[in-house]
Design brief:
Helices cover 41% and strands 18% of the residues. By secondary structure, it is α/β, with parallel strands linked by helices. The chain folds into 4 domains: 161 residues, Rossmann fold; 169 residues, P-loop containing nucleotide triphosphate hydrolases (Rossmann fold), CATH 3.40.50; 209 residues, 3-Layer(aba) Sandwich (Aminopeptidase), CATH 3.40.630.30; 93 residues, Four Helix Bundle (Hemerythrin (Met), subunit A) (Up-down Bundle), CATH 1.20.120. Strand 10 and strand 11 form a beta hairpin. The longest helix has 23 residues. The mean pLDDT is 91.
Length: 716
C-alpha cells in the first residue's frame, strides 16, 4: 500500500510540472477502496482536499466531506485532491456533482473515483432518483454506468489502481517540461490578470459604452468570473456608484466577489454584497432582478448589470434585462455542467442582434487553473459529453423519422454524441444527469428525424399515469406523491382529476431541431410521428409542459393541443409561467381533455382578475383564444361602446367576448388593441396604470382608447 501511494504522489508531482491534472480510477471493495484513498489522503501535501460522499469515512473530519447534492456550494473553491465515493453501500455516481467539482481541481491535483470492480453491471444507489413509480431502482438498466466503465477502460489518461495492488501509471513524455504557472500578463496594462484573454475582457468591461452589450464566452477554468470581479474593482475605483450582478445561483459568482474583495482591501464584504465607501456591488437573484426591473427599482440611465452563467438563465429574462440596463455584459460557459453557450447562441443572440446590433463578443480560450493540453479536461468532457455538439447533416436527403432505442444508443458513441449535442444546443439547461436519464430512464422514448446517420431533429418523451383507482384517489387527495409523473400528478392536484392519473399519458420532455433545419416543419413532423406511435401504443393523450409564450402556445395549438393548466407563479428555472397542453388520442382521452379544458376556461377569467393580474397581456390573450366566441347580444353591446356612449365597465362581459372573438378571427395575441382590452377587461388594470402604459393623462383618455380598441376589433 505504502509503495503504491508513493507512486501516485510522485505522479501528481509530475503532473504539476506540466500543469496537468489526473484521474485515479480506484476499484475494489468499499472497505479496501476507503483504506487506499485515506492512505493517499494522508500522504500527499494536498491543499483543501475534499471527500465527496453522503457520510465521511471514519477518522476524517466532517468539514472535509461534502454530500454530492451540495456540490455546487464549492464551485468557487479550488482543490488539490477530490475523492468521489461511488463504491460504499448507499453511495452512487452523481453525474452532476462529478461534472461540477471536476472543474474545481487545479493543476497537479488528482480526482480519485472509487468504484466496485464490476461497475456498470447493475444500477447503483444514485439510480433511486431515476426510478419513477412503479419502477424499483434495482430493476432499471445501467447502460450509463456501463458506458462510463467502457470509456475509462479504453482511455489512456487514467491511473488505474486496484485496491491492494500496484497502480498502472500511463506513460508521460520525458523529460518533463517545466510548465510555469500563469503570471500577470506582461503584455497587459492590468497587472491583476493572469492571461491576455482575461486582460482583454477586463478592458472591454471597463470601457463598455451604453447600448453596446458585451458577450463573454469561455470553457470552464478560463477566468471569466474572476475577470468580472477585476472589472468591478476597476469600476468602483473609477467612482461607479452601483453594479448589479446576477447568476442562476449565488455560488456561480463566489469567485467574482473573492477577486473583488482581494483587490479592494479597504472595502467590506457581507456575503454577496460588497461596499467600498458609498459604492456597491451586489448580487440579485434572477427572479428578484426581474421584479425590480419591472417595478422601475432597478435599471435605468447609467445602470450596469453583469450576468454570469447566462446560458443557464431563460432567454426571456435576459431579454427583459437587456431593455432595462443600458450597460450589460453576459458571461457564459460554452461547454459546462449546466447550461450551454451553444444553446445561448441559438436562443438569445438573435434577439440581442435585433435589439442591440452593436453588441460585441469576446471568447476566452486560454485556461488559468491548468494547461491548455490538460488530460483531465478532455477525459471529463468525453465521459459526461460536456462538449457534445450536433453534427451537420451529411447530405441533402429528406429526414426519416425513426424510433431510437437507448440500448443501441449506448453502444454507438458517435450517434449518442450527435443526438445529445442536439438536445444541449436547443435547451437552456442540460445537465450530465440528463444523459443518464436518456439511457436508463424508465418510460423514456426517443424519436428522431435522421439524415443518413445524423439526427436533425429529436424528441424525448416520458410515459405517465396508468395508476390504479385506489392510488389515484390517494394522490388526488394529497395523501401520496409517487416519484415522477409530473403532468399527471399536476393535473390531479390542480383540477382534482382522478382520470388524469388512471389514463395513460405520454409527455413531450424535450424537442430539438438542428439550427440549419429550423422553421422547416421538422418540429411538427416529430410531434405528428410521436402522436401516431403513441396511438398505436394505446396512449390516451399526448401532452407537453413549457414556459408560456404566445409563439409556443400558437405552435402547439396549431397541432391540436389545448391548454389544461397554467402555473400561478413564475417558474424559478424558466422565469415564465408553466403551461400544460394536451392532445387526445383515444375516446377516453377526448373526454378527459374536454373536461379539463372546460374547467380551465371557466377558471381563467377569475385567475386573470386576481392571481394572474401581472401576467403579460399577450400571454393572457393567447390563452383566452380557446374560449367561446361573440354572440349577437354581445356584438350590440360592443358596438354601443365603440360607436355610442355606453360606459365600457357596463359592457365588460361583451368586451371580454370580443377579445375571444378577435383571437378566433386571427388577431395576433400581441396586438395593441387586444392587449389593452385584456389588461382592462380581464386583469382589472386601473385607469392610472393604463394611462401610464398608454402615455396619456387621466381616465377620460383611457376610456377613449378603450372605445377605439373595441371599434378596431369589432371590424376585424
Amino acid at each position: 500500500m505504502e509503495q503504491a501511494v508513493e507512486q501516485i504522489v510522485e505522479r501528481a508531482a509530475d503532473l504539476a510540472r506540466r500543469r496537468w491534472r489526473g484521474l485515479v480510477w480506484l476499484t475494489g471493495t468499499a472497505a479496501a477502496c476507503r483504506e487506499a484513498a485515506l492512505a493517499l489522503w494522508s500522504a500527499g501535501p494536498w491543499q483543501a482536499p475534499l471527500w465527496v460522499a453522503a457520510e465521511a469515512p471514519p477518522g476524517l473530519a466532517g468539514d472535509a466531506c461534502l454530500a454530492p447534492g451540495r456540490a455546487r456550494s464549492r464551485l468557487g473553491g479550488e482543490q488539490d485532491l477530490l475523492v468521489v465515493d461511488a463504491v460504499s453501500a448507499g453511495a452512487g455516481f452523481d453525474p452532476d456533482a462529478f461534472g461540477a467539482l471536476a472543474g474545481t481541481l487545479r493543476a497537479g491535483g488528482l480526482l480519485v473515483l472509487m468504484t466496485p470492480p464490476d461497475w456498470g453491471a447493475h444500477p447503483d444507489a444514485d439510480y433511486a432518483r431515476l426510478a419513477e413509480h412503479p419502477f424499483l431502482p434495482e430493476r432499471l438498466t445501467a447502460r450509463y454506468l456501463g458506458r462510463l466503465a467502457r470509456l475509462l477502460a479504453a482511455a489512456p489518461e487514467p491511473i488505474r489502481w486496484r485496491a491492494g495492488e500496484a497502480p498502472l501509471l500511463p506513460p508521460l513524455a520525458e523529460p518533463a517540461p517545466q510548465a510555469p504557472a500563469p503570471e500577470p500578463s506582461s503584455q497587459s496594462a492590468d497587472p491583476d490578470c493572469l492571461t491576455d484573454d482575461q486582460a482583454e475582457a477586463v478592458a472591454r468591461l471597463v470601457r463598455q459604452r451604453r447600448r453596446r452589450p458585451l458577450v463573454i464566452t469561455a470553457d470552464r477554468g478560463r477566468g471569466k468570473s474572476a475577470a468580472l470581479g477585476i472589472a468591478c474593482a476597476r469600476l468602483l475605483a473609477a467612482g461607479e456608484a452601483e453594479i448589479l450582478v446576477t447568476a442562476p445561483r449565488p455560488a456561480a459568482v463566489e469567485s467574482l466577489f473573492e477577486r473583488l474583495a482581494t483587490l479592494c482591501p479597504a472595502g467590506e464584504r457581507q456575503g454577496l454584497d460588497f461596499r467600498l465607501g458609498d459604492r456597491r456591488v451586489r448580487f440579485v437573484a434572477p427572479d428578484e432582478l426581474t421584479r425590480l426591473a419591472q417595478a422601475g427599482a432597478a435599471g435605468g440611465a447609467g445602470a450596469r448589470l453583469l450576468v454570469d452563467e447566462a446560458a443557464a438563465i431563460p432567454a426571456a429574462l435576459l431579454g427583459e434585462w437587456l431593455g432595462a440596463f443600458p450597460r450589460i455584459a453576459f458571461a457564459t460557459t460554452v461547454h459546462g455542467y449546466e447550461g450551454s453557450g451553444r444553446g445561448f447562441t441559438v436562443r438569445f443572440l438573435p434577439r440581442l442582434t435585433r435589439e442591440a446590433p452593436d453588441w460585441q463578443g469576446l471568447h476566452l480560450g486560454e485556461p488559468i487553473r491548468w494547461a491548455a493540453d490538460d488530460p483531465l479536461e478532455g477525459l471529463v468532457n468525453r465521459l459526461l459529453l460536456l462538449d457534445a455538439e450536433p453534427e451537420p447533416a451529411a447530405s441533402a436527403l429528406a429526414p426519416v423519422w425513426q424510433r431510437v432505442l437507448p440500448a443501441e444508443l449506448a453502444e454507438d458513441e458517435a450517434r449518442l454524441r450527435a443526438l445529445f449535442g442536439l438536445l444541449v444546443q436547443a435547451h437552456y439547461r442540460t445537465t450530465p444527469a440528463d444523459l443518464r436519464r436518456l439511457l436508463d430512464g424508465p418510460g423514456v422514448g426517443i424519436g428522431a428525424l435522421m439524415v443518413d446517420r445524423s439526427p436533425v431533429g429529436v424528441m424525448l418523451t416520458g410515459d405517465e399515469g396508468g395508476f390504479d383507482a385506489e392510488l389515484a384517489e390517494r394522490v388526488a387527495r394529497g395523501e401520496r406523491r409517487p416519484r415522477g409523473h409530473l403532468m399527471a400528478q399536476s393535473l390531479a392536484a390542480h383540477a382534482g382529476s382522478r382520470e388524469a392519473l388512471t389514463a395513460r399519458l405520454r409527455r413531450v420532455v424535450r424537442i430539438a431541431v438542428a439550427q440549419p433545419q429550423r422553421r422547416a416543419g421538422l418540429g411538427r413532423r416529430l410531434i405528428e410521428a410521436e402522436a401516431e406511435q403513441a396511438r398505436r401504443d394505446g396512449v390516451d393523450l399526448l401532452g407537453a409542459s413549457f414556459g408560456a409564450e404566445p409563439g409556443l402556445l400558437a405552435f402547439w395549438r396549431s397541432l391540436g393541443f389545448v391548454t389544461l393548466r397554467l402555473g400561478l407563479t413564475r417558474e424559478t428555472a424558466t422565469g415564465e409561467h408553466a403551461v400544460m397542453v394536451a392532445r387526445p388520442l383515444t375516446e377516453r382521452g377526448e373526454a378527459l381533455v374536454e373536461g379539463l379544458a372546460a374547467r380551465f376556461r371557466r377558471a381563467l377569467p377569475g385567475l386573470l382578475a386576481f392571481e394572474l393580474r401581472e401576467l403579460a397581456p399577450e400571454i393572457a390573450a393567447a390563452l383566452l383564444a380557446e374560449g367561446p366566441a361573440l354572440d349577437a347580444a354581445d356584438r350590440r353591446d360592443v358596438e354601443d361602446v365603440a360607436f355610442a356612449q355606453r360606459e365600457p365597465a357596463l359592457a365588460r362581459p361583451a368586451l371580454q367576448a370580443l377579445v375571444r372573438h378577435a383571437l378566433a378571427r386571427g388577431v395576433p395575441a400581441g396586438d395593441a388593441s387586444l392587449c389593452l382590452l385584456v389588461a382592462w377587461g380581464f386583469q382589472g388594470a386601473s385607469s392610472e396604470r393604463l394611462a401610464a402604459l398608454l402615455g396619456v393623462t387621466g381616465r377620460r383618455e383611457v376610456t377613449a382608447r378603450l372605445r377605439q380598441a373595441a371599434a378596431a376589433l369589432i371590424q376585424w
